[in-house]
Amino acid sequence: MPYILIFVASAIAQMFLPWWVIAPIAFAVGLVASKSASGAFFAGAGAIATLWIAYALYLNVSADGLMLDRIGNLFAENLKFLKDMPFTVSFFAIMALIGGLVGGFSALAGYQLKRLIK
Amino acid sequence: MKFIKFFVSLLLAAGLTYIFNRPLGALPALGKLFSPFEGFWQNGGSTSSPDELKLEGIKEEVSVTFDDNRVPHVFAQNEDDLYFTQGYLVAQDRLWQMEFYTLAASGRLSEVVGERAIELDRYNRRMGMAETAKKIAASYKQDDIAFKILTAYSAGVNAYINQLSYKKLPVEYKIIGYRPEEWSPYKTILMLMNMRNVLNGGSEDFRMSNALAKYGADVVKDLFPDYPVIESPIIPVGTKWDFTPVPVPSVPAEIAANPAAKEGALAYNIAAPAPEIGSNNWAVGGGKSATGLPILANDPHLQLTLPSIWYQMQLSTPTMNVYGACLPGTPGVTIGFNKDVAWGVTNVGSDVMDFYQIKFKDKTQKEYWYNGAWKPTTMLIEEFKIKGKSKPLQDTVYYTHHGPVLYNHASENNFAKNVPIGHAMKWVGHELDNTDLLGFYYLNHAKNYDDYRKALTYYKAPAQNFVFADNNNDIAITPNGKLPLKWKEQGKFILDGSNPAHDWQGWIPADQNPTVKNPPRGFVSSANQFSTDPTYPYYLGWRFAPAERGLRINERLEAMQQATHDSLRSVQNDNFNLEARRLLPEVIKILAADPRNKGNAAYETLVKWNMKNDPYEVGPTIFERWVKELRYWVWEDEFASQSTTQPMTYPTKDRTWDMIKNQPTAKWFDNVNTTDKVETVQDIVQNSFKATVDSLTAKLGPLNADTWAWTKVKSTDINHLGRLEGFGRQDIPNGGGPGIVNATSETHGPSWRMVVELDKNWPKAYGLYPGGQSGNPGSPYYDNMVDKWAKGELNELLFMKTKDEKSSRIVSTTKVIGKK
């Protein structure tokens, strides 16, 4: 349930608000709906990671991967290890990590607040 | 315990959010950049245009049709709407690029990229481009046509900027981390200043002064003559000057300031005029064409970048319908055609930037010696905001009546290493005439030769060779712009800033700029070579672009009959090496006498070479490298170009090749650094050839048709304008070279190729540039013309008669209407 809540709420909110709106949303859902610490974390991390991956996948496919290729080569110029695997792997992983960490820890913080004030 | 768990998780959540929302060192804000909802993912693909667009400021309905190459065809009912829409559309495709040019020209790059751009910024600010642009922008009156155009265009650009959310920002803004500013007429003028700098901003004066000081007037006269041995000037030899020349200032007793008299070392660092900045244009008359009407061609050679410097558009109102290449940030069409006429430009290589040695009264630089008295300088404090620094940097610039003093004291990292310290710059780029835009405006409207001549009177700088053709069977070419009225050789060397006779003394009357209409040879052409032969009554400069491109174009056109657009296209792609044809017969004889060349593969290749710089020939690889080496071997010992204390420039290739042929015993062949031996021309030719082959072998391995292929060694790159890795195109397969009609070098080349067949009813035109209409690196239209360009092909251009014209090439049409 928390997973779906975070997924849906942050999908809608991000249409209009900056990317960091995922943090308060995950926090609020963690506070209200989560039942365990690990449940909160994985719901937050999973929801944001899958949401971002899904939407980025859609955008990337409809753009024939052109933008990812440019950005990939730009980053790879300084971060050579990026040349060792397809950008679709590395950049989706980096993106999922960024969104996932923020979503996960925010939801966890929400849940911990619930524990604290209960 | 619960509190600690909460606190730690909150800290992690908030901390990560904070970190990912701000730049990390060189990395941009990662959360913003990677979020698919607003980051770089949003920039992929091509944006489709809406059926209807409501914009505040549009008065009457405008129709914009996009063709299959994403070229917008704009049909407006009045000029305000036309230029408004042009501004909007160019911004939509090229906003980051146009702002980048203005930041560079105004010396403000450090504001967005930080300290690494500060020396470039200081240099550009000291050159006074921002200052001049500011004055020009302020000089317009409300009802000036140029001002109306500029204002409408700016409003269009701003209409686009104002509706931009972060998500829709060009990706470069996201990566570098800043936002676009409001556009204004001043910024468009900065774009034009940028062109003045690129095309007219270089100087050999200081290097020449060093040569004069070291070797004296006779040697300089012999080795650096004012006209080449071989030349085919733009105005054909024998053309009558049908005007009465104005008196030319007499040559003063001293024609140069003595660099040795100046205390302290001079920091010599202004760039020499870039030999690769050049262009070709020509028009053949009806007598030479298959249609019986003129055909015109133009290919301006500039630094090749992505996004490209050009943007194609068709602009139409009830009184005008024009198509061509536009400069992003600049209203109107710069190179193009309409129903009746076509025109193109190449740069005039005349000397319009001079340096004056300034004798200051004291270190404060408040006064300088001029005409027997102390004259006050004007002080200007330039301020530089630098990204990542809390305090702005200040730089004091002193202006003399000549112009700004470029650098006051030597500094290792002064950007342009060729600027003489304490030397004031006099530059045509500082002229405040505000009508350049009108030159193009009236060309866009022109119907015949008289309109062309009238349009040229508005255009001042940077001087260009305007080629022209119309469907009345007139062809013409005019090196046109403000040209200083100089005494002979004025500004060939550093001038004396205290001597009034060294000041620029006015201008060549505009109607006495060289021009030719319908010459007997049946064609007109230019390739940046000398504007005229020495019979022209005014001095324009001592050095223009080498003659080879012009000579080759002229011999091709001379031989041409029943020309079509395709014959002209083939001239644009001509790879024949005229320099090889001139030099090889002389030097092959010398190489043949060298026993080391028996069975030498490189020598054999050169002998058998067809003298074409085709992509997969090995000959040009050896020859082009050798030409550089040979000049180095002949001249570096006497005219040290790399010297830090007294740098000089080599005599031209024309002078050098002539010396090899006609003065083989000249003392200059001896290497003065070897005391035990007197080198002959044979030694220099043979040893420089061996050195060439040795260094090529060291770099490329033993001679092999694949690794030594010209295209691989030359390796043309089209890099991103902001040097973002991965945003450019590398190793483009093509031939040509700097002295070749197909003037494609490592970094420069034909930035737009156009051929127009004039017609009584409707012209047929062809063209493309090495890039694409979209400035967005994630769009398929970012670089879609590059491959075709590399092959030397052209696109047929869709030139619509009306907005309702049907064509299978039309992709979409947008109706632009006013927003109440």
UniProtKB/TrEMBL annotation, chain A:
Species assigned in the record: Emticicia soli
Protein name from the UniProt record: Uncharacterized protein
Segments traversing the membrane: 6-33, 40-58, 89-111
Keywords from the UniProt entry: Membrane, Transmembrane, Transmembrane helix
Automatic annotation (TrEMBL), chain B:
Keywords for this protein: Hydrolase, Zymogen
SUPFAM superfamilies reported for this sequence: N-terminal nucleophile aminohydrolases (Ntn hydrolases)
A Pfam cross-reference name: Penicil_amidase
InterPro entries in the cross-refs: Ntn_hydrolases_N, Pen/GL7ACA/AHL_acylase, Penicillin_amidase_A-knob, Penicillin_amidase_dom1, Penicillin_amidase_N_B-knob, S45
Superkingdom to which the source organism belongs: Bacteria
Coiled coil: none
Record family assignment: Belongs to the peptidase S45 family.
Family matches, as PANTHER family: ACYL-HOMOSERINE LACTONE ACYLASE QUIP (PTHR34218:SF4), PEPTIDASE S45 PENICILLIN AMIDASE (PTHR34218)
Protein name: Penicillin acylase family protein
Origin species: Emticicia soli
